[in-house]
## 1
Amino acid sequence: MDCDNPSLEAQRERVGSAIVTAMEDLDRDYLRKLQIEMHACATACCAEADASAEAVERCVDRCQVRLTRARCFVQQGMSDFENRLEKCVQQCRLHGSGDLLERCSSNCVDSHVGLLPEMLRAMRDTLEKGV
């Protein structure tokens, strides 16, 4: 997007704010719970007095799998969202400039930000089922 245009910059900030809010919600509602589970599991691994260092390391690695998968899933979903938005804006650039570009870009932002709640619902469903 053209950073010199205040309206386009405002659109960028709107998208950024929507994404940050979405990520914070997913973190608070799902990822932190998985992080708590991971730390509790890792603590139990470390508490095994008879385990070798290698066995403890393998145990801790297994504890991290669910959280790592969930984080990757969320990051991929958000990356896909951002890529789709960028493609929409690129199409606007191909077909216009000035006010036309601004209106088209604004429509891209509006439509994509409007899709976030449904995308988040789908991501929550997947996270609840376990990634």
Note: The mean pLDDT is 90.
## 2
Amino acid sequence: MEKDRKVFNDPIHGNIELHPLCVRIVDTPQFQRLRFIKQLGGAYFVYPGAAHNRFEHSIGVCHLAGRLVRALKEKEFEDLEEKFKITPADILCVEVAGLCHDLGHGPFSHLFDKTIIPKLRKEKWEHENGSVDMFRYMLKVNDGLQEEFEKQGITSKDRTFIEELIVTLKPEELRKEWKYKGRPKEKGFLYEIVSNKRNGIDVDKWDYFARDCHMLGIGNNFNHNRCIAFARVIDVDVDGERERQICYRNKEAANLYDMFHTRYLLHNRAYQHKTNNIIEYMISEALVLANDFITFPGQNGKQRKMSEAIDDMEAYSLLNDGVIYNILGSRSSDSNMIKSKNILLRVLRRDLYKLVGEKRFAHNTFKDETDVKKDIGNVTSDTEDGNTIIDLVNLNYGKKDMNPIDFVNFYSKEEPDKAEPRHKEDVSLLLPKDFAEQLVRVYCKDPKFYTSVKERFDNWSKNTLKRAKKQKMSK
């Protein structure tokens, strides 16, 4: 083993050996912070096994990113031009991006950037933006780290490449003009490894599917090792132009369908579990109420609120799941802080807002929660003080109502240098007809309103069923 490399014993991938540069990154306070951010946010309050954190997931993604890019290099065509070949710098950059892709997560992972920040800030902000900011901050404040990058041959252009791998663009944004500066279009397939906006097949998902299923006790039929073994880079036709993409052997189509079905199952049973969703709603409600009263020291000693910390990585590096104990331990007598503490105490005492009912609908039946409220009508008439919660859950295979496999190209054993899409009917006639659905859930905060809200919800549910039957008969 090379000097300064380190082996991590991982329950999912076994012994993971990291490059010395990756070890230096792991041994920074900014990366160690991920030990204190639960991978699945509030799901730990539902599944006792969901105790894993962003720390181990990030190491797993780094490992899989390295495995996949090396597998692609091994299968490079012999007559490939030298400038198009995968280099050692490419490999290391992809590994570093996999390691750092989640540096920007806040308390309770996606709960922070998907729910809490949108309620506190007007501008759009996602954890990937925070990951790039934290990556830059990490290089700045850790003595010798930037020099270690240079020692390993990672230039400023390579660091730009790493940032681009973390915040990738959609294929349609690159169709007319290649906007990346880190690598040329001929190496565009490298941008599909950590975060794949083309079809959703990337090592980030491969790790968290395997890790989450293992920790949650949910079966996983998808085998990422087969995908790595049968992945290769091939020139494919895209709107009359040749484009190098990661393609898979045609017999792996069924395995990839299992991957996206696993995604659906995890969302249905865990990520969007009815109890998980209401617990996360209560936690976000508590954190929003406490925003003005809990601060963290940032640059130049300035105290930052949670909503301000995303602009100051010194403050943000101190923000993790432990913020709920900052609130619980606060002595503030402000009414908002008292409300915040009481909500968190209800979570800890399992005194949760109660589910009134749920109903399943076809994809795009409702645009948003407001659209649901209009349809439900007077279900909330007795709860004008905000005691009713409507939760619209979108479940799909990762591409809304589209089949993600339609965006994958496959090659055959007989023609390994030619790839094209594969129709699902050629894979199996038993695959799903629809790839997306919606769930409407109604919760009640105050038990005294539960019976009346339940009655109205049941009437609405029956009416929607009758309405659906009429629409079906009229077609």
Note: The CA atoms of residues 60 and 207 lie 6 Å apart.
## 3
Amino acid sequence: MLQMSEEVLDELDLQKYNTSDDGRQRLIPAVRNCRKALLSGCRLSETHCEVVASALKSNPSHLRELDLSGNLLKDGLTGSRFELLSAGLESPNCRLETLRLWLCRLSETSCASLVSALKSNPSHLRHLDVRGNDLKVSGLKLLCDFLESPDCRLETLRLSSCRLSETSCASLVSALKSNPSHLRELYLGGNDMCDVKQLCDFLESPHCRLESLELSGCSLSEISCASLVSALKSNPSSHLRYLDLRGNNLKDSDMKQLSDLKESPHCRLETLRLTDCSLSEISCASLVSPLKSNLSHLRELYLSGGKFQESDVKLLCDFLESPDCRLETLRLRSCRLSEISFASLVSALKSNPSHLRHLDLSHNNVCDVMKQLCDFLESPHCRLEYLSF
């Protein structure tokens, strides 16, 4: 029925069907008649890959988004599943805009097939996700050949946990600098890069239009933070709206650097993620002070995992009470809030409640102050949509 329908299906998500794994696999041929196919973790065989390739090569091809994450696509004894898929990707009929290949164990041969296909038909792809694949230097070099193509229009590139080396990072930055104007989102978390300064050369480019940057768990050093902030501050036309530094053991000096960025009149950050960054009292003070001086843009603040003292929470409350504060999301999970800190926090939220939509206070031992939280929830100006407690 799905294949023969005259109406093209908007989304085919195999995980939504209440059937066995074999039953889900029997639904895969319906990929020919849908715009978005979510086939993650479906144990795709070579026959299934042929079906997907056929959907990409069909005229017209309806597929615009394809998620193959969690499928073993490496070279096999009877040939490469990825070579079959590449034949579909390089078809002139292919109009794919989003391709997700997270945790697909891509080999060097697979990368070569992928890049060759993308280079032969690069202009439609906007989002590429190859997280969790050990691309090695050779695989990343091949991907850079695609990024350097003048016809490449990629807007989102996800390379988290790809074991990028310093050499790989240098190749990546060089490729991005040669064709920087289209990229909007870059995710590099989980790569222990030795020299973030190379990335900063790209960020300093006047043609850089990056809006989202993720560097979570990248073991940023003090020098790395200084280079990063300097690069962002040196580009007055900076478009950066989302900065993710989770899981980096930021020192007080690092937070001072970030504070300098937040105080910059050119800073337009809307989301700042500092979860599990081991923030100290001095770090918290450095963070909150610039937020108060340039706070109208910030919408999401993630501080979970911090060990906040009462003085730290007081500083945060000063920010929340400001009439110019437009914060919509605040996450303070596992911050060891005391009852006094919690009371101060709720009081601050009550004084300026209308913008906040998401509040996470889970894993704080403050069960005796539920009454104070309820006072906030009862406020006629409270617009909270999500609460974790």
Note: The chain has a mean pLDDT of 87.
